[in-house]
Amino acid sequence: MAEISVMALYDQIIDNHGEFLESLRHRFLDGERKSALQKFENIGFPTKKDEEYKYTSIKEITEKNYNFFPKEGHNITKEQLDQLHLGEENFDWIVFVNGKLHKELSKVSIENVEFLSFNYALNDEKHKEVFEKYFNTIASKDTAFTNLNLAYCKYGFFLKVPKNVVIEKPIHIFYISQNQEENTFYNTRNLLIVEEGAKVEVIESHHNFDSTYVLTNSVTEIFTYPNAKADWHKLQNDNNTSYLIDSTFARQEKDSLTTVNTFSFGGKLVRNNLDFIHNGSNINSFMNGITIIGKDQLVDHHTAVHHNFPNCESYQNYKGIFDGNAHGVFNGKVFVNKIAQKTNAYQQNNNVLLSEGATIDTKPQLEIFADDVKCSHGCTVGQLNEDALFYLRARGISQKEAQALLLYAFANDAMQNIDIEPLKEKISKLLAEKLQVDIEF
């Protein structure tokens, strides 16, 4: 029963707990896995009748068959890996192939931290107390995909950065799928704990090397403690037989800073769920995104920030460029609790449609229950400024180059807070490549 239609789980879920879960057996998770499967059965996959998926149909995902247990064999070459790198000689990197951590392909020089593959950490008695304290405590218990992830999660990583430890090198996490003869379903799970005064930067990317379809259902939980800083950059540039459902939950304590940047260029359908929870005062949260897609791609950003304490700030800036029959969705929510006075929340979503077939559904939302706040939100949908195009054309620049330069400038400000130069350069090059323009870096 390695291969099963995801929709067929409805009929088989209860009778086959043991068979499905036997290879996923972990000391304290058995009961939670079964409970998650039961919740999934009760909830069912979302449809366009559900408010949160009103503009995003996942029918093409759920109607396919998937292998839940990928083949481990691979023949990834150094040249293939080099093409995925950002030129980051001074980075650390961790490579998962077909769900398994491969140390021989990774480079890990970080010290004074606790780093383990997720599956190993689950079975390591030393980390039992940590996992029971943090694991699945901030992830949503009410969605189909988070419950499926809890039921099947086996792949991913666990990283705990102790008090006052500063990890100078960014860590790039590669999730690679190769040599899969059938459509494959990965449920990746990441847990990051950044203790008081610590700092870390993570880059995450997914890559499908096959023509078969890959569905990745990823859940990440980030805990940032007082005076700590955690940056997580998502580079989404996979092929057109890849689906990604990414759910990230971040809980911040007082005086902390957490950033999640999401750069979406590839993948057939990408859904990003991002949830920030403030658990103290003087917190700063940053969410930035750039989406450039065409053909029949779909990228959906759903964000939420929960301002529960006073004197906190959140900043959201998402830019979208859509061509062909591409479809974009942005739904950003900001909740301000009645005790969260002096909140400063900014939310902006700007979009450019390059063709008649491209569409964007954008819905910024504020729910404010405090009276001494600065909260703003806005969105724009349009085409390029004709006066600016004329200005560039008058100086001898071709129509195509003028358009690309304006689009590059339009998207560029959403990556200004990236302080990893190789990543910033990579994003700039991807922007130029997607816009088909030569830009000097």
UniProtKB/TrEMBL annotation:
Taxonomic source organism: Chryseobacterium shigense
Family to which the UniProt record says this protein belongs: Belongs to the iron-sulfur cluster assembly SufBD family.
The SUF system FeS cluster assembly SufBD core domain, residue ranges: 181-410
One Pfam family recorded for the sequence: SUFBD_core
Protein name per Swiss-Prot or TrEMBL: Fe-S cluster assembly protein SufD
Annotated ranges, domain SUF system FeS cluster assembly SufBD N-terminal: 10-173
Lineage, highest ranks first: Bacteria, Pseudomonadati, Bacteroidota, Flavobacteriia, Flavobacteriales
GO biological process, one term: iron-sulfur cluster assembly
